[in-house]
């Protein structure tokens, strides 16, 4: 698959992906040459075989020379490519001609674009390398064929050998591999949903399976074949399937050393005090510590989409460690169980910092939020189980913690403190989960549209945030979360290492296994992201403002305070630029602003004959100057028994994407206090500075009268609608009466 993907990317492959692909290719060829070249020197080499066309072929026989010849050709070709590439790069670097090479490449591309030769026109009409469906489909079919071949050969080899099982069947490495499978599964579901279920904006040339399906449909149409005729043919065809003979493959020699029947062995449980490399191995520990520190560094430097990859690796490692301990619950020792809680504790603390920021900004991938929630629930459940059943483990009295230089047994007074804290944490998590689910359900269009109580909560009963002058800024929130998480990371590191140093455990024979190697490979992702972020943000090549770079903002504040500078010149220039461009931010929309303290209405403002009034104002002005417009809409349509529906848009992104980011409905006439609450909600709907749009729509909505409001009624309203599915019938009745606008339906 590496050849197919690398050929597809051509010159557009990410540096990290290209490097990892090259490392994997070199390691595979080197390992394969070593394994097949030294095959006769292994123990019991004569009984290891492959299945080729139903025959057992020993790996030390003739097939060994064929494999070595193929690997030799591959290694020679790759060596020549690497040598030529290295020589070209060194020549360009030492002669300072790298910029000239890029200029020459750009000149050749421009020359090809302006060329009118038949060959160039044919190549240009065929599309770019990345847009050719034939290349993608060919590479996919080629890779799929070799994937099936590799699976068949591996499973046949496993099925024809009896191996003695060692330890637990599910270790850290296997669980980490399964968790990593979540990423391609979610990506596949998202791609299928976006490109093949919904109306995809991509052209058909960018969707290779759609191209293939269109070719098949055209071929079937030319041949006069329809789906109905194919179904009739399959219906009339007789069932020719029958059970064939079963081939039983025996093992060559079950009495050989290292190969025996698993039914004749009784694998004993590991002794208490024996080292488990998948838990207390140096690779697991170093990977967790380094991933946490590097992820927090990236979070402090650039808390945007770059944090997702690093946080994903940290979650996979910590969650795999806990699941591996849970799977081996019948054989794990109390020492290793408590150590798992210390190693996974920093990831839990970091979850609060990341989840809080991503929840406010609403830009986290759903898969990352789900995995964060699963990790938190797993940690709390596992910790409660370990500390609650601590006296039931083998030798619980010898396991202890080191607190202020003193050895404290885990079955002593510290156990009750931990159980109390974990119980409070679990209760808070359950309450937050229930409220989160209810809020998610309440925001669904079917429920929000049909329940006045739910809409009323959305519009008025949101607790307003602090005023902008006393509100915690984004950079302060990010840096505070990063420093607090780093402090807990150092605390957990010290406690875990002191616990390991104060216990005498028997070292394992195989210190570096698959699990520790996987943990170190997962460390490559945050390391590469950190290098890229540091290079981009601190070599003066970053286009981000200081509001998006917390660590740089902190350093600038320290620097200018040190030199007693009154203000930051970059911030002054950016504020002046924003002020100059504020008048043209909305184009033809009506402007209402209160920058100078007094409301100013645009000359284009006119309320007569309009059902939609759009207003803009500073978030710090609490909607000053908009009351007359809002009350005009209410007074105009109150006699028609219409509700007032409003939506909030962010000028930079949401209005352009036609996406409502916050909204609600108030029924009937507004009072002065209701309007004040609504303005506060609008002002504090999103953190940070900037301008936004308040759209008030006089829509044909039925008036639903109710007396009072409280949280219990709101919860019962949401649950009742979900259980009874009342919105299905109500939506059908409202279809003919509700008026849809271009912005909100």
TrEMBL record:
What are the transmembrane regions?
20-53, 65-92, 135-158, 170-192, 282-300, 312-332, 338-360, 367-393, 413-441, 478-501, 513-535
Entry annotated with the keyword Metal-binding:
no
Query: What are the protein's UniProt keywords?
Result: Membrane, Transmembrane, Transmembrane helix
Q: Specify the protein name.
A: Transmembrane protein
Q: Which organism is it from?
A: Antrodiella citrinella
């Amino acid at each position: 698959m590496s050849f197919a993907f690398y050929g597809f990317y051509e010159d557009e492959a990410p540096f990290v992906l290209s490097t990892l692909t090259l490392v994997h290719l070199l390691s595979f060829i080197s390992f394969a040459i070593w394994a097949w070249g030294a095959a006769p020197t292994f123990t019991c080499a004569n009984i290891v075989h492959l299945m080729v066309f139903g025959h057992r072929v020993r790996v030390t026989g003739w097939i060994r020379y064929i494999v070595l010849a193929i690997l030799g050709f591959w290694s020679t070709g790759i060596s020549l490519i690497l040598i030529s590439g290295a020589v070209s790069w060194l020549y360009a670097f030492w002669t300072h001609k790298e910029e000239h090479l890029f200029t020459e490449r750009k000149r050749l591309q421009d020359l090809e674009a302006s060329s009118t030769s038949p060959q160039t026109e044919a190549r240009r009409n065929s599309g770019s390398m990345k847009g050719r469906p034939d290349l993608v489909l060919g590479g996919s079919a080629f890779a799929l064929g070799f994937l099936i071949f590799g699976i068949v050969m591996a499973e046949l080899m496993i099925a024809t050998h009896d191996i003695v099982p060692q330890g637990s069947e599910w270790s850290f490495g296997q669980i980490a591999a399964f968790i990593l499978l979540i990423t391609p599964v979610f990506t596949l579901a998202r791609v299928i949903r976006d490109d093949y279920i919904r109306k995809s904006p991509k052209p058909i040339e960018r969707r290779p399976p759609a191209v293939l399906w269109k070719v098949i449909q055209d071929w079937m149409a030319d041949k006069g074949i329809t789906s109905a005729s194919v179904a009739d043919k399959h219906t009339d065809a007789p069932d020719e399937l029958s059970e064939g003979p079963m081939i039983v493959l025996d093992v060559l020699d079950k009495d050989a050393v290292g190969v025996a029947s698993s039914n004749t062995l009784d694998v004993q449980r590991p002794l208490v005090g024996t080292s488990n490399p998948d838990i207390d191995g140096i690779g697991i520990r170093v990977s967790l510590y380094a991933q946490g520190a590097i992820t927090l560094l990236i979070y402090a430097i650039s808390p945007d989409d770059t944090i997702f990859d690093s946080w994903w690796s940290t979650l996979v490692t910590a969650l795999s460690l806990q699941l591996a301990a849970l799977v081996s619950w019948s054989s794990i020792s109390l020492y290793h169980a408590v150590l798992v809680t210390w190693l996974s504790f920093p990831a839990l603390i970091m979850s609060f910092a990341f989840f809080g920021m991503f929840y406010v900004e609403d830009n986290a991938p759903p898969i990352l939020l789900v995995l964060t929630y699963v990790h938190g629930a797993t940690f709390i459940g596992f910790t409660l189980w370990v500390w609650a059943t601590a006296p039931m483990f083998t030798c619980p009295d010898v396991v202890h913690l080191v607190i202020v230089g003193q050895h404290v047994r885990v079955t002593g007074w510290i156990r009750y403190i931990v159980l109390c804290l974990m119980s409070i944490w679990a209760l808070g998590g359950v309450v937050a989960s229930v409220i989160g689910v209810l809020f998610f359900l309440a925001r669904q269009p079917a429920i929000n549209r049909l329940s006045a109580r739910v809409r009323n909560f959305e519009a008025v009963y949101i607790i307003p945030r602090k005023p902008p002058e006393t509100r915690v800024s984004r950079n302060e929130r990010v840096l505070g979360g990063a420093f607090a998480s780093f402090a807990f990371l150092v605390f957990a590191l010290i406690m875990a290492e002191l616990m390991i140093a104060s216990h005498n455990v028997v070292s394992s024979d195989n210190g570096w296994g698959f699990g520790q190697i996987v943990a170190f490979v997962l460390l490559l992702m945050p390391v590469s992201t950190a290098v890229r972020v540091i290079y981009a943000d601190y070599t003066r090549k970053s286009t981000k403002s200081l509001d998006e770079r917390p660590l740089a903002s902190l350093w600038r504040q320290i620097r200018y305070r040190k030199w007693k500078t009154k203000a930051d010149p970059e911030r002054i220039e950016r504020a002046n630029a924003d002020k100059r461009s504020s008048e043209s931010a909305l184009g033809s929309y009506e402007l209402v602003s209160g920058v100078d303290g007094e409301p100013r209405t645009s000359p284009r403002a006119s309320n007569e004959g309009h059902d939609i009034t759009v207003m803009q104002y500073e978030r710090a002005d609490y909607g000053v100057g908009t009351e007359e417009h809002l009350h005009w809409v209410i007074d105009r349509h109150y006699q028609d028994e219409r509700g007032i529906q409003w939506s909030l848009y962010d000028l930079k992104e949401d209005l352009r994407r036609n996406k409502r980011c916050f909204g609600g409905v108030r029924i009937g006439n507004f009072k002065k206090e209701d309007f004040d609450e609504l303005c506060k909600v609008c002002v504090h709907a999103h953190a940070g500075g900037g301008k936004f749009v308040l759209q008030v729509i006089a829509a044909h909505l039925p008036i639903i009268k109710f007396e009072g409001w409280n949280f219990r009624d709101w919860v019962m309203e949401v649950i009742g609608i979900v259980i009874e599915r009342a919105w299905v019938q109500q939506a059908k009745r409202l279809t003919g009466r509700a008026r849809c606008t271009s912005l909100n339906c």
